[in-house]
Amino acid sequence: MAVENFEIKKMNYASSYKRLMHYFIDIIVLVLIIQIIGRTYCYVFNTTFEENENIFTLLFILVYFLYHILMEYYFQKTVAKFITKTSVVNLNGKKPSKSLIIGRTFCRLIPFNTISWFILDIGFHDRLSNTRVINDE
Questions:
Q1: Domain that holds residue 103
Q2: How far from chain centre, in Å, is Cα 131?
Q3: Is position 124 within any domain?
Q4: Radius of gyration of the chain (CA)
Q5: Count of domains observed in the chain
Q6: Comparing C-alpha atoms, which of 78, 40, 44, 43 is closest to residue 59?
Q7: What pLDDT score was predicted for residue 1?
Q8: Looking at the domain assignment, is residue 130 inside a domain?
Q9: DSSP symbols for 20-43
Q10: In 57-96, which positions are buried (b, 16+ CB within 10 angstroms) versus exposed (e)?
Q11: 10-23, pLDDT tens digit by residue?
């Protein structure tokens, strides 16, 4: 486990409640994206969701990973973090590398990750990926 830089300790971490808001807002955004893609697909190919359940399951997985990786790598934020005025940083308080963001995204799959901020001072996917979510200044 990396020792946190003094600079990051001075930063203001996002609260557990903001982190929970991030989860719910981002799920809503992901569902909307899937709905738009799914309905467009069904319209173009004259089919239904029920007939393509496996395709939409794979689509959700793909969109889930692309959404988090691209948004957090390029903007240091997802839609939820834009709304709550928070950002993802590395342990030095800087923009995380692509590998940290990819690791962070895969760590989201850990069971009970979403509630880990209420149990620990730093949640699983932040702790394991050496990233933090801070309030913007």
A1: 6-135
A2: 12
A3: yes
A4: 17
A5: 1
A6: 40
A7: 46
A8: yes
A9: HHHHHHHHHHHHHHHHHHHHHHHH
A10: eebbeebbeebbbebbbeebbbbbbeebebbbbbbebebb
A11: 569 999 899 999 99
